[in-house]
Amino acid sequence: AVVSTQSGHYGRELCALQDAYNAMCDDLADKMHCLDVDQACHSLTNQSANIGFHAGANCIKEGIVMPDAWDGHSNYNTQRAVAEMKASTALREAINNMIEQTSNDLEAQRLRTEYAFRKRIHEVQMAKDELEWQQRNTKREIDVLSDDIRGLKQAITDKDKPLEVAETRSENRTYRPRVELCRDEPHDGIIAERNDLLNTVSTLIDQHNIAEYVIVLQRTFLLSDSF
Question: Above pLDDT 90, what percent of the chain?
Fold first, then answer.
């Protein structure tokens, strides 16, 4: 908006300066013509070939002006030209100052933008490095957890045979005759062993399910970070 306003002022000042210049050119052309006439008159002598009588030579021609008016006209044109040149110089200085200020403002804005870019690039790089570090850690944790899950599955499988042995022993001892069907120490031991095995399997299954859930979450995290 400031540039547009100054451009309008500059256009108007250019027109005014051109008008003053044209007026001076016209005045100068008139004075040069006047000099030619006066110099020709000054050169006339009694022996000149182009002298003669002229009717109405003493009449005052229409439009004739007094010396003060002639001098004022020349001074006006001169002063007008001087004033317009001063105004033009002042406007030119104002425009140069405005251009310099605009250039400074643009440079300042460029520096702010460059700083903002550097700051943002640093922030994004830091976030990227952090995510990549976390991604590597998560991948390692998934690998470790996968090994643990395989171990849990094997541990659960490994309890099948001991549980089968304990339950087979318990079942077979139910066939003892009459009073031999006694709740003796081996009976209590078999029941305790079976219960311990069942509790252990239940605990292993819970840990397995938790590990499976955690690994699903970690894989989801890795997938979301890859986009």
Answer: 20
